[in-house]
Structure formats: C-alpha cells, structure tokens
Design brief:
By secondary structure, the protein is α+β, with helices and mostly antiparallel strands. It contains 11 helices and 16 strands. The chain has 2 domains: about 90 residues; about 250 residues, Endonuclease/exonuclease/phosphatase (Deoxyribonuclease I, Chain A).
C-alpha cells in the first residue's frame, strides 16, 4: 500500500513538473511576443521585458527538475526554454565572427565610460582610461573638476580632446587628430557630439552620446516601479540615426544609451548599425549598476546592459569586453576593438 501511495505521489510530482515547465515556457514566449508588439503602448510590458533575463534565471530550479526527469516532454521543454533564452539574449558571438579571419591592417581600440559624476576621484578615473590603451574614448557624466583632471593627467596620452562641460556632460578623448566636431541637440534630449578624426589619412565619424533615461512609473502604494515609458528615448535614437544616415564613411557610435537591449530603441540601433559587443563579446554584457549595494550588501554583478559601442559595416569588431571596476563608477566601461575593412577611402 505504501509503495502504491509513493508511486502515485511520484507520478503526480512528475506531472506537476512537466506542467510547470510547459506553462513557464508559454509565459516567457508570451512576454517576448508582447515585448515586441506592445512595449511602446504598455509601460508594464516594457518593464517586464527589460528584466526578462531574471525570469530565465528564476527558471533554473525548474530546468533542473526537467533535466532530472529525462523524459521526451521534459527535454523538449528544456530545448524550447534554451531557444527562447538565446533568442532574447545572444550571449555568444555569431559563428561568422568566430570563423572570420582578420582582413584589415588597422584596428581602432574604442572605450566608453560613464564616470559616475562625483562617485570616484577623477585621478582614479584617469588611471582607468590610461590603462585601457584605447585610441578613442567617450566619457559621460563629466564634471568641470573631472574634465580638468582628465585634461591634465591624460594630456600626453590623448593630445586631442573635447571636454567642454559648458555645453554638455559628454566628453571625447583621442589619440587621432580631430578634423572637426559639432554639438548636436535632439529635441528634448541631451546634446551629443559628432567628431571626425583623421585615422592615418582616413576620416572616422565618431558620435559620443549620452541619452536621457526612460521615464519610470512608480507604484502608488509601494516604492517599486510598475512601468517604463521610452518614447523620449526612442525619439533621441531616431534623431541620432538621422545624423548617422548623412555620413557615407565609417561610423562609430558609443556611449551611455540608457536603453535595454530588449527595447525598441536598441532594435532601431541594430537595424542601422552593428553592436560591437554582440559581434565579438561573450556573455550578457551588463554594465549598470556597478558597485550597487542593497541592504549593505554589494551586488556581485550589474543588472542591465545600457552602455554600447555600435559601428557601421565599414568596420568589424575583433574584441569586446566589459570592465567593471570595484569602488569606481556606477557604470562599467565597455571596450571594443574595431578592424577597419579595406578598402578605406577618406571622405
């Protein structure tokens, strides 16, 4: 009798795990579909879609249970879960990028780094930038104090720079001579730069940017967000892409976009340009918040990916990394090596 009851309980448990797995996969698929079609009209979907990575993380115990069952249904559910995850979060570079061989002789090392306003002594930030050995650097949340320190400490390494806090909090450092630059002002957005540098006789068009974050709708009863509004962010991206479309030569757009890689703004960017980290990096590439403490405990990793290096088809990413430095900015730096594809004609 005991064996019969035990067998019946085991059967019910197996059935419950199968059902839970299938329901979870259906719910995740529904969220990803809603994120694609309803994100702009539903602040809640925008919020849930932004953090869908952690719904996949929450499914790990369920995935383990399905793996232990080792039935066809369980394994098929696991496969569907993995496919959904990789569709939403392509954490490995494309096969074409892995198998490709370098075809150009020139590589540009790029870096974007949100300095975090006054969180870190500027001298430490200058050391971090110098250690990166990047050829061009975009910085955000620049202050008059950090601008003065960077100009002094990095004068020899980066003789060409734009650190004008009177116009904007975005700055630019370069080992290459600056041919020209202008400040561009999107409607209701932060001013950003369009810089043209001379890279061994060829013109590279660099757009260092720092967009406003999306609007957050807060719960009326609890100090918790219940939605995101990204209309202004999408407008800034549209304005940027209009400026990029006027350029015929190689383009690099880098900075703090304040957008999730699950957003429509990100989809618009990757429809026009390549994501350097997705082309050559490995892992989720999260950059914010770095050094975040919750109830006195430091989170071991950032939660979101909002800092990027994008590039035109004139270039190919050969390396990409996220550098999260303990005790410095609340953003991680993103470093991407870009190979210039031949032939490159100056414009």
């Amino acid at each position: 009798m005991a064996n019969t009851i035990s067998s019946a309980n085991l059967t019910r448990l197996r059935a419950a795990i199968h059902a839970a797995g299938l329901l979870y996969v259906v719910a995740l698929a529904a969220l990803l579909i809603a994120n694609h079609f309803l994100r702009q009209s539903s602040p809640f979907v925008a919020l849930a879609g932004t953090f869908n990575l952690y719904l996949f993380v929450a499914a790990l115990p369920l995935a383990l249970g399905l793996l232990l069952l080792r039935t066809r249904t369980a394994l098929a559910t696991l496969l569907l879960l993995a496919v959904l995850f990789l569709l939403a979060h392509p954490i490995l570079p494309p096969v074409s990028a892995v198998l490709s061989t370098p075809g150009g002789d020139t590589t540009v090392a790029t870096m974007t780094f949100n300095l975090g306003l006054n969180l870190t002594p500027p001298e430490l930030l200058a050391q971090t930038i110098a250690t990166s050995q990047a050829d061009i650097v975009a910085v955000q949340e620049l202050t008059s104090q950090s601008a003065a320190v960077l100009a002094t400490e990095l004068a020899a390494t980066y003789p060409y720079r734009i650190l004008d806090t009177a116009v904007g909090s975005t700055g630019f450092l370069s080992k290459y001579p600056i041919i020209s630059y202008q400040w561009l002002s999107p409607p209701n957005g932060r001013p950003f730069l369009h810089v043209v540098v001379d890279q061994e006789g060829a013109a590279l068009h660099i757009f260092p940017i720092h967009f406003f974050p999306p609007g957050i709708i807060w719960s009326e009863r609890l100090p918790l967000p219940r939605g995101l509004v990204e209309a202004q962010l999408e407008g800034e991206v549209a304005y940027l892409l209009q400026q990029v479309a006027t350029v015929s030569g190689p383009v690099i757009v880098l900075g703090d976009f304040n957008m999730s890689d699950q957003s429509h703004a990100y989809a618009a960017m990757t429809a026009a340009l390549h994501d350097g980290f997705r082309q050559a990096g490995v892992g989720p590439g999260r950059t914010f918040p770095n050094n975040f403490h919750l109830a006195g405990v430091r989170l071991p990793f950032p939660l979101l990916r909002i800092d990027y290096v994008f590039h035109s088809s004139h270039l190919a990413a050969t390396s990409a990394a996220v550098n999260c430095i303990e005790g410095q900015s609340d953003h991680c730096a993103v470093l991407v090596g870009l190979e210039i594809k031949p032939p490159l004609v100056a414009d």
